[in-house]
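seq as requested:
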Amino acid sequence: SLSCGFGSCNTNANIRNTKKRIEELESKEVKANTGNKEIVFTGGKVTLNYEQDRLQIAHDQKPEPSKITELKSNGFRWSPFNKVWQRQLTQNAMYSTRRFLNIEI
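struct tokens:
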């Protein structure tokens, strides 16, 4: 029988995950200092806002209800303050944005 203290069996995995997260955060900090990246598409623009750690989508006009449903189902939420659809800036956020807007990021 394996006898581990609380969480001690996964120590190496925890160390690897922590190191990976530190690298991720350091990369985001470097990008935050270089400025945001903007990608224009037909009907709006996508902003990789490194300072706020958000992927933001601004439309020229209010999107159709079906597009709003698609945004929500892909993790985006409306930000009344920023007047954009946004979600945390992650690899998954970039993947889903590329897929449903059919653009390169």
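The CA atoms of residues 71 and 97 lie 9 Å apart.
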